[in-house]
Each structure stands twice: as C-alpha cells, then as structure tokens.
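Re: your question about LysR family transcriptional regulator

S., sorry for the slow reply, the queue was backed up all week. Below is exactly what I fed in.
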Amino acid sequence: MELQQLRYFDEVARTQHVTNSAKKLNVAQPALTQSIRRLERELGVTLFERVGRNVRLTACGEALQKRIAPLLAALDELPEELAVVAGQQRAAVHLAIESASGLAVDAIAAYRSAHPDARFVVTQEASSRRWDLRVRTVRAESADPRARRFFERIGIAVPAERASQEPLPLSDLADEPFICLAGSRTFRAVCDEACAHAGFVPRVAFESDSPAVVKNMIGLGLGVGFWPERSWGGLDDSSARLASIADAPFARTIEIAPTSGPLSKEAAAFHGFLVSFFEERWREPSPLCS
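Result:
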C-alpha cells in the first residue's frame, strides 16, 4: 500500500467521481482506476460501488477514508510546521469558513492591513482538515459552548417599488422566482426548511456566485431573494430593498468556534480580532424592522 494510492483514493472519495478526480490529480483515468483496484486487492475489500456515472463509498471505504484523511492532512501540513519550528516563517491560521464567507474574508483583509506578514489557510470543509477556527451556521441545540454565536434574522430582498413597511408572510412568496447566491449551502438549507413549513418549495430561477449580481437582478425585478440582515452586508442599492418576513422565527445563528486543542499565538490573536470584527458588524443598525 503506497502513499500515492491513498491520496488517489481520498480524492475519489471526496468527489465521488473518477473522471473529475483524474482531472484534478492530473492523471489518466485508467491509471486512477487501476490504482483504486490495486488498493482494493491489497486490502481485500471493495471500497467503492458504482451509482450511474458516479461512485459511492462502501462501508469499508468510509472506514478507510475516516482513518486516512487526518493522516494525509497531517502530512500536507508537515513542511509548514517544520518551517515554523526552524523559525523560517510564522504559523498560519487555519480557517474553516462554512458561513458568512464575505464577512470572514473582510476580517482577514482588515487583519492583514495591520499584520502584513500574517498567513492564512482557508477551507470550506472542516470535517477532514485541520482547522484552528471555524465559522458556520448552527442549530441552537448543537452549538459549541466554547464558541461565540451571532443571531441574525433573514429578510427578503425585493425590488424597491415592491418594498413595504409591513412584514411579508412567507406563503405570499410561493409563486415568486428566487434569485440565490450559489454555494451558500447551510443558508439555503435554513431557507428551504422555512419555506417547507410555509407549504412550498422555492422556485430557484437563477444562481450566481456574486452578491452584486444577485442584488442587481432583484433590483431589475427578475425575482426575489433571501438575505440575512447583517452577515452579507446591506443591499446598498436604491433599486432593491430588504423587507421583513412575518413568519417567526426565520433566522440563523452563526458560530465562531476554536478547535478543541490549544491555539497557536497567531490563531489566538486572530480569533479575538475575528470575534470583535463580527461584534462590530452586529452593533450596526439592522436594516430590518423589529
């Protein structure tokens, strides 16, 4: 069993797609397939099962990935750790950003303006990678007691001419086309659940990875969109307005949590800065009516 085999297996386990994994690894697909089959023969178990054009981990595959993922991550981080020990560079702050990414990146930029030599490693997946600090959306019952939590309501962005001082019942939006920010999985899950309680599935007409595009499309009257009151910033556009939703509670909680182990001095310093940065945003007046 070779290290390269395990890296190939881990990548396929992540994507659950052999062709996409081969492209990312820059290897021929037949070579990747043969590597996986050789690993299966050596271990004497089946690691993947085919599902259409994709593959899915078997129980043995899941067990293997759970064991090797932290080992591979530790190997990847070894050069950095040795460089820190040798005094060649400062320790990087490892961030898992799963929610409020725009605000978290703004915090990184602000911190770097005062600390130009600060180093960051950012990921969207905390499950199998080392992280010092994690920003995510949580349910109240699963919140980490060591974490700092920020509660925010969710409003509906509408064209300015449709804005109203009265909160909108969520059920009134059942037939509306929705313009959504792509990639915001946890936020989407909260919104989808609220819509389900109101008796409908939101009809997503368009997704964009740019908040500016989402705002512009809503301002042009092409649809409406859910928008958190603080973490995504204001609409800042005279063509769109943020309206309150009558359904209660329609909100989410963002959590900033440290890892269970000790933090480096660099991570501890940024942790305090990040919490303060969020607190400052939360002290700003809310664009939603109480």
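The chain has three domains: 1-76, 83-145+252-281, 151-250. The radius of gyration is 22 Å.

Happy to talk it through on Thursday.
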